[in-house]
Amino acid sequence: MLHHAFAITAPGLEAVAAAELRALGLGPATPETGGVAFQATAGGLYAANLRLRTASRVIVRVAEFPARAFHELERRAARVPWERFVAPGSPAAFRVTCRKSRLYHSDAVAQRLHAAAARAGATVGVAAMEEGEDDAALRPAGVEAQLFVVRLLHDVVTISVDSSGALLHRRGYRQAIGRAPLRETLAAAMLLASRWPPDRPLVDPLCGSGTIAIEAALLARRIAPGLRREFAFQRWPEFDAGVWAGEVARAESEALDAAPVPIVGADRDAGAVAAAVANAERAGVAADLLLVQRSLSALEPPPGPGWLVTNPPWGARVGEADRLRDLYARLGQVARTRCPGWTVALLSADPRLESQTGLPLTERFRTTAGGLRVRLMAGVA
């Protein structure tokens, strides 16, 4: 059976995720607003959750039908195969958005759908949740509810089931975080969009809690990011344990014992470096990284050329950008003098700060992070 799947990404990362899906052999993949559409067998769906580094969630379309009144919604919802995705006695939850439709009350829509799922054996769960809410909201009593994502647009109802569970950026290693944590999925997107080949050295001179360096080590060692976690599809009544075991075994067999290149993370803050070390140990890649307390000006890159990929402070607060001009200028100077010929990629929220580097940077993608519009800029020092 082919699943009509959709890998949800942060806005602006659709092309990166589509290229990743194709590289994994899960194409053809079609970028759409908010993610990438693709078709997959059960094994392909399992592999997407296990291996995707840039997606936040993988959902599967369950049903699509018109509904202009509640009686029509109830009648058609009764035909949805809820029992394929919710075991008897298990809770279900619904995230509903209504746009340009006669049925515009999301809670009322969620209640009707929940009643239909309950007749198929689901227990009472969370009626609705807001867009972007994490799955912790679905476990008021420590029980994981099966999430359904529902969209009403121009009186057409689209129901999708979440196959991931906890958001995919939750790799399980990042418990110690810095002041401005970078999501693992965005760090991975930076590496992929910068076109870093995992056989070249990589340096993050402003590493914070180490997310970019750790994601680079996972990528270099070909370690599937989902190997250490569980997924919602494992609770589906139609879950194929044999197929899943095969996907896990295949991913484990592909992993390398060590990173083939030096990966360096540096930060002037001792607490940030300690957090990075702790996170790297939990990720199982501490031996692959050199994590040091060092100022930007004292950077000692390994023999190159390689890649310098970093997430400098963005200057979001009023007046802060002026104080960061020196930092960006120093970053550019260090790149030119210590890393000539290296590819430099940085995440930025302010074109004026980017220009302070004096580097020939071009945009690779733009997205949102921490409520701000940011973009990845890259070029050769």
Description:
With 381 residues, the protein is an alpha/beta fold. The protein folds into 2 domains: 3-162, VC0802-like (2-Layer Sandwich), CATH 3.30.2130; 184-221 and 256-380, Vaccinia Virus protein VP39 (Rossmann fold, 3-Layer(aba) Sandwich). The protein has helices spanning 14-23, 42-51, 70-77, 106-119, 184-193, 211-220, 241-254, 270-283, 320-338, 351-356; strands at 3-8, 29-32, 35-40, 57-66, 92-99, 146-153, 156-162, 202-204, 263-267, 289-293, 307-310, 343-348, 362-369, 372-380. β6 and β7 (156-162) form a beta hairpin. α2 packs across α7, α3 (70-77) packs parallel to α4 and α5 crosses α6. The chain is elongated. The protein starts with a strand and ends with a strand. 45% of the residues are buried.
Straight-line distance between termini: 49 Å
Poorly predicted parts = 137-141
Query: What is the count of β-strands?
Result: 14
Radius of gyration: 22 Å
CATH arch. level architecture of the largest domain: 3-Layer(aba) Sandwich
User: How much helicity do the residues have?
Assistant: 25-40%
The count of domains is 2
CATH fold label of the largest domain: Rossmann fold
CATH superfamily of the largest domain: Vaccinia Virus protein VP39
Tell me briefly what this model is.
The chain has 381 residues and is α/β, with parallel strands linked by helices. It is 30% helix and 23% strand.
